[in-house]
């Protein structure tokens, strides 16, 4: 397997985090809106899109310390995204199969 350069890795991760954010946006658009799902869904949107935005910011870090600091934020936002997805899944048990692809994609991203 070919070793990726830092630039190639960063480009792939920028694309992956952006694709993940888009998939969450589409997921939210199709979510049946109730009081709880509206609030939880908005939190999900914020954290998922923050993963992509903060990864882009990390790539522009002016030092290793700044890069590391921003990557820590990405990790926190990804974990928060997983929390909101899990909470939505437990709240909407009848629709759980709709949540599984997003959760699997997030877990793949986190690994």
Summarize the structure.
The chain has 4 helices and no strands. It has 111 residues and is mainly alpha-helical.
Annotated CATH homologous superfamily: 23S rRNA-intervening sequence
Percent helix, as a range, is over 70%
- N- and C-termini, Cα separation: 18 Å
SSE class: mainly alpha
> Radius of gyration, Cα only, in angstroms?
15 Å
Unreliable residue stretches = none
By CATH reckoning, the class would read Mainly Alpha
The count of strands amounts to 0
From N to C, what is the helix and strand string?
HHHH
Shape: elongated
Fraction in beta strands:
under 5%
**Could you describe the largest sheet, including whether it forms a barrel?**
none
CATH architect. name: Up-down Bundle
Mean pLDDT: 86
Summed up, the helix count is 4
Number of domains: 1
CATH fold assignment: de novo design (two linked rop proteins)
How would you describe what is shown here?
The two termini are 18 Å apart. 83% of the residues lie in helices and 0% in strands. It contains four helices and no strands. The longest helix has 28 residues, at 64-91. With 111 residues, the chain is mainly α. The chain has helices at residues 6-29, 35-59, 64-91, 96-110. The radius of gyration is 15 Å and the shape is elongated.
Based on the model shown, name its key terms.
111 residues; mainly alpha; de novo design (two linked rop proteins)
Write the layout of secondary structure elements.
Elements (H helix, E strand, L loop, with lengths): L5 H24 L5 H25 L4 H28 L4 H15 L1
Helix pairs in contact: 1-2, 1-4, 2-3, 3-4
